[in-house]
Amino acid sequence: MYLRGIKFIQIPTTLLAMVDSSVGGKTAIDIPAGKNLVGAFYQPSLVLCDYETLDTLPDNIFADGCAEVIKYGIINDKPLFEKLKSPIKPQIEDIIENCVTNKRDVVDADERDVGVRQLLNLGHTAAHSIETLSNFEISHGSAVAMGMALIARAAQKLGLCPQSDVDEIIKMLKNYNLPTECPFSADSLAEIALSDKKRKGGKIDLIVPFGIGNSQIYPINVNDLEAFFAKGL
């Protein structure tokens, strides 16, 4: 907003920023009512990823980024998911390129997040509630991991996702030292989520894995959200 918008360059130094927040043009701040509720779409002039900076990260901060990397595999890139069964650091440049390419293609198709870009929100509806309920003491990557595990379990119980794929998702998250259990109740998660920007009147769009590499937009009635979360807890 300053000077009606000034050019800026993103120089991400964490894995999470390199593969997610530095690309796509979303800018926002958190407020007491929830995460990222005040902001705009504003594209950077340049994004410079120097992956050698990742060598400076504590393990838990690096793992946060791994959650977002795993997310791309679950959404629409099963070959990426398979790559992650081998250690990530020796192939980090290739992994970052895969993720940025995935996000670029989705953002090119839907910059304003009204259609296919919503797929990038896999796990995020629950995750944003988790972050808010923890007063942001639970990191974004950990919350996304919890959210993806929750949504995968719920999808299996609804007959939407095979148990074998859910097991693989949970195993992958654990392999990267990410949490898969949510400490909050379904009603508290739903209460926060209903003020989320993805709500559209009486409906809210969830992103549900129908299998690894095949996630879809899944609108549900807001009155059914608590029960959906309960299935995944």
Order of helices and strands: EHEEEHHHHHHHEEEH
- Total of DSSP H or I helical runs spanning 4+ residues: 9
Indicate the mean pLDDT.
93
Any idea what the radius of gyration is? 17 Å
Shape: globular
Binned strand content: 15-25%
Helix/sheet category: alpha+beta
Secondary structure: number of strands = 7
For the biggest sheet, the summary is: 3 strands, antiparallel
Low-confidence stretches: none
Ends apart, CA distance between termini: 40 Å
Widest sheet: strand order? 5-6-7
Helix content: 40-55%
Structural notes for this entry:
With 233 residues, the protein is an alpha+beta fold. Helix content is 45%, strand content 16%. The strands form 3 sheets. Strands 5-6-7 form a 3-stranded antiparallel sheet. A two-stranded parallel sheet has the order 1-4. Helix 1 runs parallel beside helix 4 (92-109), helix 6 packs antiparallel against helix 7 (163-175) and helix 6 (140-157) crosses helix 9 (225-232). The radius of gyration is 17 Å and the shape is globular. 39% of the residues are buried. The mean pLDDT is 93.
